Amino acid sequence: MESRAGLAATPGALPYYVAFSQLLGLTVVAMTGAWLGLYRGGIAWEGALQFNVHPLCMVIGLIFLQGDALLVYRVFRNEAKRTTKVLHGLLHVFAFIIALVGVVAVFDYHRKKGYADLYSLHSWCGILVCILFFVQGQVQ
Ligand code: HEM
């Protein structure tokens, strides 16, 4: 909806919803980090801890950062379109790179351990998510 000044009106509750979404997002990232750090020995690129890179990167990249990329146009609805596009694009690029590290980590871990790939519903849904993420970037 446009106001008389030509600026899009901001729904009154939006800041609260956004604050709540950030609180939830950061809580999920912190809890995943605490789970991996306190109960699963931490993260590393070599050895048994390489697997742990996967959940952390997927949560930061595809849950938190991608979620924030989607919120940019609503939160900064009165900023110049060019500015919001750059921020939106940057968040998506960060999300993509971090998620890629997470996917490479789990495949590399499976390869080093001699485990099979893509044997679970989770892994196939995960591949579908990665493909849809990529396709989404192509149609924009
Ligand atoms: C959007 C988020 C996620 C995506 C796109 C994703 C994607 C994938 C993919 C493609 C694989 C297959 C790797 C292979 O076959 O070598 C995989 C494996 C795995 N992931 Fe995720 N993952 C995500 C989040 C998570 C999270 C948060 C956890 C744990 C809390 C997790 C736990 C696992 C486990 C245990 C495996 C190995 C067993 C299996 O293949 O099912 N993933 N993931």
From TrEMBL:
Alphabetically list the UniProt keywords: Cytoplasmic vesicle, Electron transport, Heme, Iron, Membrane, Metal-binding, Translocase, Transmembrane, Transmembrane helix, Transport
Tell me the SMART domains matching this sequence. Answer: B561
Chief location category: membrane
Q: Cytochrome b561 domain location, by residue?
A: 20-140
The highest taxon in the source lineage is: Eukaryota
Q: Which residues cross the membrane?
A: 16-39, 51-74, 86-107, 119-139
Listed under GO cellular component are: chromaffin granule membrane; lysosomal membrane
Has UniProt tagged this entry with the keyword Cell membrane? Answer: no
Annotated compartments: Cytoplasmic vesicle, Secretory vesicle, Chromaffin granule membrane
Required co-factors:
heme b
Does the UniProt entry include the keyword Iron? yes
Q: Which Gene3D superfamilies match?
A: 1.20.120.1770
According to UniProt, the reaction catalysed is: monodehydro-L-ascorbate radical(out) + L-ascorbate(in) = monodehydro-L-ascorbate radical(in) + L-ascorbate(out)
Membrane topology recorded in Swiss-Prot or TrEMBL: Multi-pass membrane protein
Q: What is this protein called?
A: Transmembrane ascorbate-dependent reductase CYB561
Source organism of this protein record: Ailuropoda melanoleuca
Q: What is the lineage of its organism?
A: Eukaryota, Metazoa, Chordata, Craniata, Vertebrata
